[in-house]
Design a protein that fits this description.
379 residues, alpha/beta, Aspartate Aminotransferase, domain 1, seven-stranded mixed beta sheet
Length: 379
Amino acid sequence: MERIYLDHAATSPVHPEVVKAMMPYYEDQFGNPSSIHSFGREARRGLDESREYIARKIGASFEDIIFTSGGTEADNLAIIGYAVANQEKGKHLITTKIEHHGVLHAFEHLEKLGFLVTYIDVDESGRVTPSSIINALKEDTILVSCMFGNNEVGTVQPIKEIGELLKPHQAVFHTDAVQAFGLIPIDVRELGVDFLAVSAHKINGPKGIGFLYANSKQRISPLFFGGEQERKRRAGTENVAGVVGLKRAMEIAYDQLEEKRAMYEEFQRILIHTFQDNKLDFQINGHREAYLPHILNISFPGMNVESILMNLDIEGIAVSSGSACTAGSIDPSHVLTAMFDDKNRSHSAVRFSFGYGLTEEMIKKAAEKTVDVIRRLTK
């Protein structure tokens, strides 16, 4: 049986070219980049070249890039690191109700430390209004966090507008760009963000590596204590092979930006039209103009999402009920709960997400299998 993977928003397969780029740093150029001998210098060269490339691609400076173990650490380092280091300026923070748990749980931790957090509502498309964030600002607000693109419904937030409105205020601006990165061109200066988090495994890079863009003018407290790596902001020997793999994954992603967007939008059309042609009862969740093309979240009213996922898995189709970090949970999605009063909509929502290796034929087959499953469950 052919298996079709439609859960690329959870993680993506590593591109063969990425594996090829990483291998020398496991075999021959394995040195510690902090060592001064030739083995260390070879590893350092790979690290520095990758940092330079990443910085240039997002409009940042070399010293603004901090390599981390992934998006969650990058988010935590920005949010907790900045709040703790700058609490003399104030203890009020702002975020939204639909953030990834890597962000929400960081704010919950800060609340236990005595910080006050305002959680901003979203509309039924999953979007915040810049005015709602600006209206929540206080004199002692020191940080605002709003994700770039949502990992469950794909809605893209008005990051540039928020960044512009925050300029007169002391609050710094953080965005979790884990889902959007590699699909939307990003320039941190144009966006007006001070911190931006990225993870490699969402863009066909390896797991366990990511980076935080941190404006070098902003002071942050480290989460780890040890050596002086990453300009004393993130202790621990750098994952050089992972960093090189991240760079190669970025190169491939940026070379294919337009091509991928067109392909994923066609995949969305195939699924939607197949469901419409077969007269399924379904609702699309998320904004239909400001959206990530690789994510399509659909509710099937009256259906139980666990039954849908199990039956699709039996048919060889891998999809999700939302965030991979809540897999196995019977609780409704916090994102869809924030968007809708209708609990049934969140209990029947399936996320289809696209990526490397998929073809139109695979999508058509997956769409037909989904129709069969929904019809069977309806009976």
